[in-house]
Amino acid sequence: MGDSLYLLGLVALTSWLAWRGGRRWARLDGARLRPALVRLLECAGLTVGFYVLNVLVGFAAVLVLRKLTGSFISMYVNTDWTLTLLSAFQAVTFQWWRAESE
Amino acid sequence: MTARRPPLRLASSVGALTLGALLVLGFTPLVGEISRRVDAAPPPGPADAIVVLGAGAARDGVLSNQSLRRLVGGLVLYRRGLAPRLVVMGPGYQGGPVEAEVRSTLARDIGIPADAIVVEGGGLTTQHEAALAARRMREWGGRRVLLVTGAQHMHRARLLFERAGLEVVPAPVVEISPAVRRPDGRLELARIVIQEALARLYYRVSGQL
Predict the structure, then answer these.
(1) Residue range B181-193: average pLDDT?
(2) What are phi and psi of B63, to 5 degrees?
(3) Taking CB atoms and an 8 Å limit, are B15 and A99 in contact across chains?
(4) pTM (predicted TM-score)
(5) ipTM value of the model?
């Protein structure tokens, strides 16, 4: 558990520093942290949604490309971890798009 | 001025579950414990051939970590005298070298006799590899194989090889240790376990298992 506790402790410390700094210097409203956390959950959920969509479409695309081209494309290409990161970018963009449309 | 959009409730719920799962899988030993129990196998016994499944090689001929680990697993079994033949598998990917040939060269370089090594580089999927191995075994008149692949991949591979008419002695190779301590390692192990579960589902739905 050593590595896990260290990493969680590190993030807890920097989060606390951000909280203090945000309140003191940026004059952020403490009561708005809760809705911000809800937005975080929303973003995480959207990331999962985009990831599932990417994997499903990718899976179908591989099957179609195999049929059309006759060449072999591995299914494993759809499980590359960078797809998670790209899905997160899609989720953040979608959230900002919603916010900008208000 | 328009009203602020309400949170996406479904997305928030999925997000909460995801972050919870991330904490449990990455920051506790749970996935390692599951992997250790599910992937346990008895010590391997003698067979007619050792079959090492493919796992990828780069365009410059460098074997992937999984490929190298599986090959080492097969070499150890051969050195123990558990089978007279070592079948190395793995195709060429996108114009790169054939993985099975790279493995064969490496095996010869470290002293495995050339006539004991069988290069089978045509298998593109596990099912395809099973069919090719079964054909080779029919030619030799044997059917018992020591199957070398990743611990998480073993269950599906074993079913496919048995379906191809072979008797399988599993010799799983640990590709990520269940005792991994860092969260990134645990999450990678979880990813492989989930990926393999989805692959099994696909094979069942498509009638290959």
Answers:
(1) 92
(2) -70, 145
(3) no
(4) 0.87
(5) 0.85
